[in-house]
Design goal:
Blueprint lengths: L5 H9 L7 E3 L8 E3 L2 E12 L5 E14 L3 E14 L5 E12 L4 E10 L2 E12 L4 E7 L4 E3 L4 E2 L1 H13 L4 E6 L9 E11 L9 H4 L3 E10 L11 E8 L4 E7 L3 E12 L9
Parallel strand pairs: 11-12
Antiparallel strand pairs: 1-2, 3-4, 3-17, 4-5, 5-6, 6-7, 7-8, 8-9, 9-10, 12-13, 13-14, 14-15, 15-16, 16-17
């Protein structure tokens, strides 16, 4: 059924691209990327539908939190979505995704579940590791599922940081292999086009410190990462307004035969834990 498997994957690459919290940078950057820990609510709506699309309407909410801990980032996504279809029953989807990503970009612990029309139809748990001796995403639920990773594989926070670093350096094109554990499909290839820098906005009605800064409009195309697949059309594409602190103010997700918007409607900072010696 169209849309049934989409919400989590979209959240992680849109909103984990909205990852918050932490400081990381490469030697080439003028300053480290400093992302802001926060809790946010996004309103989700159908934007458009092409002739022949089975999806008539999509609407709902997403609660997103991201917090810097002493040794990594903790993110939580909770979706509540309602789908209307042509010729079939409506679908109500409740999905949750939680992850912990170590600062070094070498470890990702992930867990997700999805309930459709009151019945759980998917549960995923696992650990992804990138080291000299092990480069694998191993699921514990289901037990027989795993994916090979590489030194080039990025987890969501590291990918967000790479996008912002590239934007600050004036780069226009960023290509990356990304794994987040949000579904059972494995890593994806994300091609990003970074537009011109947007100016700070002093008239924002939301938290000014979190949403009033400068940013960029970015266009991301998501492809399956399969070397045996010569697919030239993306699975879906996203246009987002990402700020310097990693907050995404709004985005549009284009599934080719229909599109959905996610708009930031509420946001507040999260207090970070004190780390190190007192």
């Amino acid at each position: 059924m169209p849309g049934k498997s989409s919400p989590r994957r979209v959240s992680v690459y849109l909103l984990c691209a909205a990852l918050t919290a932490g400081t990381i940078g490469s030697p080439q950057t003028a300053h480290a990327v400093d992302l802001a820990s926060h809790k946010a609510i996004y309103d989700i709506r159908m934007k458009s539908s092409q002739t022949g699309s089975q999806v008539l309407d999509v609407r709902g909410k997403m609660l997103f939190t991201f917090k810097k801990s002493c040794d990594g980032w903790i993110s939580n996504h909770k979706f509540s979505l309602n789908y209307e279809y042509t010729g079939s029953q409506p679908l109500e989807v409740e999905s949750k995704f939680t992850s912990f990503e170590g600062f070094g970009g070498k470890l990702l612990n992930f867990s997700s579940s999805r309930i459709s029309n009151g019945e759980q139809d998917q549960e995923l748990r696992g650990l992804a590791t990138i080291s000299d001796t092990k480069k694998i995403a191993q699921f514990s639920i289901p037990e027989d599922l795993s994916f090979k990773l590489s030194d080039a594989t990025l987890f969501p926070a590291a990918h967000t940081i790479k996008l912002i670093e590239a934007a600050e350096q004036g780069q226009k094109i960023v290509n990356a292999e990304v794994f987040d554990g949000s579904d059972d499909k494995g890593p994806v290839e994300i091609n990003a086009v970074i537009g011109k820098k947007t100016l700070p906005q002093s008239d924002t009605k939301l938290d000014k410190a979190l949403t009033g800064g400068a940013g960029w409009v970015m266009r991301l195309a998501v492809f399956p990462n399969n070397s045996d697949d010569n697919q030239t059309t993306s699975d879906y594409e996203m246009t987002m307004n990402m700020l310097e602190n990693g907050v995404i103010k709004d985005m549009t997700v284009d599934y080719h035969n229909f599109s959905v918007t996610q708009k930031l409607v509420a946001i507040e900072p999260l207090k970070e834990d004190k780390c190190g010696a007192e």
